[in-house]
Design a protein that fits this description.
By secondary structure, the chain is of the alpha/beta class. Helices cover 44% and strands 10% of the residues. It has a single domain, classed as 3-Layer(aba) Sandwich (Uracil-DNA Glycosylase, subunit E). The longest helix has 23 residues. It comes from Tepidimonas charontis.
Length: 188
C-alpha cells in the first residue's frame, strides 16, 4: 500500500489517536465542506444521538458518548453535492479504486471495531476486508442521514428508528465478536 501522511482531520476524516472504534460514511457533502469536518448537519445530529445509546449499552466498544472519541471517515474523500459536482455520491468504480482503498485502509488502521454506514461505504469496507487490509470487526448499517433513517419501518418516529439502528449495530458486533474471539482483530 502507498504511503499516506495525514496527522490532522480534514473535511472527510476525523482521526482519533488511540481510538478502538470508527465509523465510515459515504462522502462529505455541502455541510461538511462548510463546517470543515465529516458527518455534519443532520447526519451528525443522528450520529450524536446514536453515540449516546451505543455508549450506554456497550461502553467497551463505544467508550465515549462524544464523536471526538472515534475515527470518523468516508469511503470517498472528495466533497460531492449537486451544486458543486452535479451529484451527491461517487460511483462504485471510484470508491473501489486502489488508491482510494489504500487511503481508507490507512485511516482505519488499528481499529478493532468499525461501523459502516451506507451502501457505497459497505462496498469499500468489503473490498478492504477481501484484500486483507482491515482486520476490524465490522457492522454494516444504513446511512445516518434523515432520509435513510426514515426508511426504517420498524418504528414510527426518529427516536425509535435510531434505537432500531443501534440494536442492529450491537447485534452485528456481538455476533461477529463470538465468531472471531472477543471482537479483537487476529494477531499476526
Amino acid at each position: 500500500m502507498g504511503r499516506h501522511r495525514r496527522d490532522v482531520g480534514t473535511v472527510h476524516w476525523q482521526p482519533c489517536p488511540g481510538a478502538h472504534t470508527g465509523f465510515v460514511f459515504i462522502c462529505p457533502g455541502r455541510f461538511e465542506a462548510q463546517r470543515g469536518y465529516p458527518c455534519a448537519a443532520g447526519t451528525g445530529a443522528n450520529l450524536a444521538r446514536v453515540l449516546l445509546t451505543l455508549h450506554e449499552r456497550d461502553p467497551l466498544r463505544f467508550s465515549s458518548p462524544h464523536r471526538a472519541g472515534y475515527v470518523i471517515t468516508n469511503a470517498w474523500a472528495q466533497v460531492e453535492y449537486p451544486a458543486l459536482t452535479q451529484r451527491s455520491v461517487p460511483t462504485l468504480a471510484e470508491v473501489l479504486q486502489t488508491a482510494n482503498l489504500e487511503r481508507l485502509a490507512h485511516e482505519l488502521a488499528g481499529l478493532r471495531w468499525v461501523v459502516v454506514c451506507g451502501t457505497l461505504a459497505h462496498a469499500a469496507v468489503h473490498a478492504l476486508r477481501e484484500r486483507g487490509w482491515l482486520d476490524a470487526v465490522v457492522a454494516c448499517e444504513r446511512h445516518l442521514s434523515q432520509r435513510s433513517i426514515n426508511g426504517i419501518r420498524a418504528a414510527a418516529d426518529t427516536s425509535g428508528r435510531l434505537a432500531h439502528w443501534c440494536d442492529s449495530v450491537l447485534t452485528q458486533l456481538t455476533r461477529c465478536a463470538v465468531q472471531v474471539g472477543g471482537g479483537m482483530p487476529a494477531q499476526a
